[in-house]
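S.,

As promised, the guanosine-5'-diphosphate run. Input:
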Amino acid sequence: MPTVTEYDTITAISTPPGEGAISVVRLSGDQSIEIASKLFKGSDLNKVASHTINYGHLYDPENGSLIDEVMVSVMRAPKTFTREDIVEINTHGGIVATNKVLQTLIGSGARMAEPGEFTKRAFLNGRIDLTQAESVMDLIRAKTDKAMQVAVNQLDGNLNHLISNLRQEILDTLAQVEVNIDYPEYDTEQMTTDLLLEKAKLVSQSIDSLLKTATSGQILQHGLATAIVGKPNVGKSSLLNRLLDEDKAIVTDVAGTTRDIVEQYINIDGVPLKLIDTAGVRETDDVVEKIGVERSRQALKDADLVIVVLDSSRDLEEEDRELLEATSDKKRIIIFNKDDLVHKISPENVDQLKEDDIVLVTSAIKNDGIETIKSTISDIFNEGIEDNNSSNVIITNARQAGLLLQAKDSLNEVINGIEMDMPIDLVQIDMTTCWETLGEIIGESYPDELITQLFSQFCLGK
Ligand code: GDP
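Predicted complex:
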């Protein structure tokens, strides 16, 4: 674990931008209390007890003008989020007042924090591991209660424990192998390979069960990516409007401050449904259309769930068939809409349906079957996140999943190596690589650029 290092004192507004009753401006670093004292009139912040909140006023040290009436929390190292001295100033929540406080703190010797820098310090000072740092971000972005619960769990260090235990197993095994090699008078060769093989398989199984949770983790974090497809006029927009009828909440997620991607979610009975755009999937020679079709196909590929809408009152056409074909390997709901009209097609006479398709009959006009769509989506969501989740540890991001896959590759090398009678020291190298890769997940061995990149995804003030 890294030890506490001296850094400059940073500051940022830690509450979301906009008007609120209060805003919080935070300082972290060994100059925090001294800098805040330059602005603050009330009790002497240098003398107040740690973890107290103090009433007073802030003045601009340049010209003595009053900035705001405030409450100031003083928290001394090391029992703080960053393990450094932290001061949190509660200001009146206007943009102007809050910015003025921030500027004055910067003028008095603090440096503007980078996005995620508070959490980064918590990590660099050994207060939390990487998975915990990531869960802070997950917590901020959680869209459902369940997602929040998983993030809190991870913040508690559950994934860290699991990974650390696996690493310890590997380390013990490697130590045992060393002993066996150092005392060759015993007939230990067989014992050594047996031990390595057994442990490699055991760790590999644990990694497998963790990896199985990755899909659930993604759904929890990013919602159920859903594409609604159907030829024109089957009633897609009408159905969507019906679905939104009672639950108008549209969740908009602005990912971090470094990227401008805005994703749209609709909230269906508590399920964040991330709608993905699909134009059409028809074969075409038109160049522009081709790009659209390519995009749609990619979007379909990325979808966790596809809703195919058919029109009961019209015969099945080429475009319907193409859509059914293009989505045949997906988890899908097939909707026979316009049930109120005379039927040309029905679930019984469309033979492109698969056994595991969920087939629903609706009328958007009459508002029939809409509740069933909602409960079906809700079931699929819950199924998705409850699978394989006995330990309550869920892999929620691609970085963790990628490293687990790498670690598993190394273990496969170990197993293959032993089965092919490779020299034991080569097998040891792969086992060591696995140990290192697992270490990267929790940040025991980490390249600098990873740390910079990872924390820059946080919001300012975190
Ligand atoms: P989209 O092109 O697939 O989005 O289809 P729309 O939602 O725009 O609907 C096309 C037309 O079908 C509109 O005139 C709707 O009023 C009508 N429509 C949609 N759903 C139904 C339904 O369940 N029954 C009937 N009779 N008409 C519907």
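The two ends are 22 Å apart (CA to CA). The mean pLDDT is 83.

- D.
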